[in-house]
Amino acid sequence: MIYYTGKNGQVGWELSKRFASAGIEAIGFGREEWPLDDLDSVEKILEKNPKVLVHCGAYTAVDKAESDSENAYKINSLAVQKIAEECFKRKIHLIYVSTDFVFDANSETIGDTLRFWKTNSSLSPKGVYGTSKAEGEEWIRKTFSGSPGANIVRTSWVYSAHGTNFPKTILRLLDDPNRPELKVIEDQLGRPTWAGRLADFIIFLINGVSKGESFPQTLHFSNSGVASWYDFAVAVRDISNASQTIKNVKPILPIPTEGYPTPAPRPRYSILDLDETRKLFGPVPHWKEDLILCLNELAESSGKKL
Predict the structure, then answer these.
(1) With contact defined as beta carbons under 8 Å apart, do 66 and 59 qualify?
(2) What is the overall mean pLDDT for the chain?
(3) 181: which of 73, 204, 211, 269 is 20 to 30 A away, CA to CA?
(4) pLDDT at 300
(5) 129 has catalytic annotation
């Protein structure tokens, strides 16, 4: 039996589809079934000893976390501590979905070489969300020190056809007659990640664990390739325009981070190194390839296909 949290989120939604199609027995938990801010609920929910717990659920409202830090730390740090301790005690394999927000950098290059964050790079979070997620990671490392019973999977810029995310926001703004143009940040770089591909990787780990295989405790997963938010937005517009799923092609203008202030700081540079992932999982598609798949799913739901 597999348990997974965040069933109504982007990754949980993609996992649920894959569990069903593969005939994998799994139970998903949303906020109603498992309120993560209720620390006393952990022991009761895990008392049936599932083989694996995939912990996708988190406090992900990055800006709100700055003014709601108590809840953010309770869910992203203290709840993870309780979950890790209970999983370790019960020998439940824990897969914890983490974030590129545990890193931050002001420099984009070392000499002429792009900087890639390694799985063992020192954490340098900025803001409540990133710091609370980093604390969650540390609780897992401390609890499972020397044990193969947990994996931390860092990812970045996650999107899907479900929920609220960057591509869907861009599509909505492109369709807004009151916006003659869009302005999108160009000096934050990362790797967009289709939640469906991330779900495939998580199921790869689950299948390996069920066969007795072990993996490095900390792993990175994202699509390959590098983009700015501006690049990402332009790709969403151009791919969707080719399928005529948007009504017009508005100009998208690049702006610096300072041109779009937010309560919480964002990593300027959060490109995750994928070398270990490729060795285990094989080649990972470029982010534009999977963006087409996701936008195609959205287009099909509206009667149009890319």
Answers:
(1) no
(2) 93
(3) 269
(4) 83
(5) yes
CB 1 within 8 A of CB 27: yes
By DSSP bridging, strand 189-190 and strand 109-110 are unpaired
Rounded Cα distance between 112 and 84, Å, is: 41
Domains annotated for the chain, with CATH where assigned, are 2-164+192-223 (3.40.50.720)
Query: Do residues 243 and 299 make contact, with C-beta atoms less than 8 angstroms apart?
Result: yes
Catalytic residue, candidates 3, 59, 129, 159: 129
DSSP string for the chain = -EEEE-TTSHHHHHHHHHHHHHT--EEEE-TTT--TT-TTHHHHHGGG--SEEEE------TTGGGT-HHHHHIIIIIHHHHHHHHHHHHT-EEEEEEEGGG---S--EETTEE--B-TTSPP---HHHHHHHHHHHHHHHHHTTT-SSEEEEEE-SEE-SSSS-HHHHHHHHHT-TT-S-EEEE-S-EE--EEHHHHHHHHHHHHHHHHTT----SEEE---BS-EEHHHHHHHHHHHHHHTT-SS----EEEE-GGGS--SS---SB--B--HHHHHHH----BHHHHHHHHHHHHHHHTT---
> Looking at the DSSP assignment, which residues form a beta bridge with residue 97?
153
Least confident of 56-70, 80-94, 255-269: 255-269
Instruction: Record the pTM.
Output: 0.94
